[in-house]
Structure formats: structure tokens, C-alpha cells
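Private note to self, pasted from the team thread so I don't lose it. C-alpha cells:
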């Protein structure tokens, strides 16, 4: 399963919600790819997140496949796959070789593999630039969410005539 959409749209949050419901039935391996840039580091990142130790000279992929094949049904969450052009190839290889393995990938674009089911998350609608009418602004889910989050951080926050245009631009 690939959860796709623009940055900040909620891909990671949705993936984490899904796996929170699966934890009773399956082992879950969460792999954050944020900050990783080495294209060769995808399999080692999964291995590290699974808590697997690989002896020097031994293939990380072989050890990972052994672990995934010998354990309980597993869900691997790969968060931030857009940084790894080879992610689709790795995922395809893993799911072809490990029965009952589920991979949830978050990315700004689909992995492009035959077994992929893509869930596209759309951005929330935003108001046109320069709109300052507070009632109109609050009809936009992006502004309402911004207001809710801002109030959670600062209980005295509210949209006012003085800040409405500027705050709406942030959305």
C-alpha cells in the first residue's frame, strides 16, 4: 500500500493510525527514512528498525528475508520513500519473497510496482490570497485546522481582523 500526497498532508499520520490497529495481529516495523540520503541505505534502514544485527560480510537483505520469513505476519512501514528511487524495486522483491508481508509506504509519488495499491491524500482547500472575512475563512478546512492547532498551542489565540489575512496565507 502506498499512501501518497504532498508534504504535510498527513501520510505519516494515516500510516501510523493504520498500524496502531494492526499491532495486535502483526509485528510492525517502523522505518523513518527522513534525513537518509544514501540510496544504498534502504535495506540497512529496515534491518536497523527491526533490531536485527548483521555480521560483517553477510548480506543485509538475506538476513532481513530470513527474519521476515521466520516470524509472525509483519507490516513494514517505510516513511518517506520519495528519497529512494529504488524503493519500489526493494518492496517488490520483499513482498514477492515473503508470504503475508504487508508494506505501507508513504511517499509524494507512487512506487510504480505491479502489486501497489495507491491511496492518494489530497491537500485541504485553501482560501484565495487576500481574503480577510473571518466567517468565510473558517469555512475552509485548512483554516479551521490551523485555528484548532494554534489554540491547542496558545489558548488565547483566535482569528481576528488584525491577523486573519496573514494567518490564512500560512494555510
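Design output:
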Amino acid at each position: 500500500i502506498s499512501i501518497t500526497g504532498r508534504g504535510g498532508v498527513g501520510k505519516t499520520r494515516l500510516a501510523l493510525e493504520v498500524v496502531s490497529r494492526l499491532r495486535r495481529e502483526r509485528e510492525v516495523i517502523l522505518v523513518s527514512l527522513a534525513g537518509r540520503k544514501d540510496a544504498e541505505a534502504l535495506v540497512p534502514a529496515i534491518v536497523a528498525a527491526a533490531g536485527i544485527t548483521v555480521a560483517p560480510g553477510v548480506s543485509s537483505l538475506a538476513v532481513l528475508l530470513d527474519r521476515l520469513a521466520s516470524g509472525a505476519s509483519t507490516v513494514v512501514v517505510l516513511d518517506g520513500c520519495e528519497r529512494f528511487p529504488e524503493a519500489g524495486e526493494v518492496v517488490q522483491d520483499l513482498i514477492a519473497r515473503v508470504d503475508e508481508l504487508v508494506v505501507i509506504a508513504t511517499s509524494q509519488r507512487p512506487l510504480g510496482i505491479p502489486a501497489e495499491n495507491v491511496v492518494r491524500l489530497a491537500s485541504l482547500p485553501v482560501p484565495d490570497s487576500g481574503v480577510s472575512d473571518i466567517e468565510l475563512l473558517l469555512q475552509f478546512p485548512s483554516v479551521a485546522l490551523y485555528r484548532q492547532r494554534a489554540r491547542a498551542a496558545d489558548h488565547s489565540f483566535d482569528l481576528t481582523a488584525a491577523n486573519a489575512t496573514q494567518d490564512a496565507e500560512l494555510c
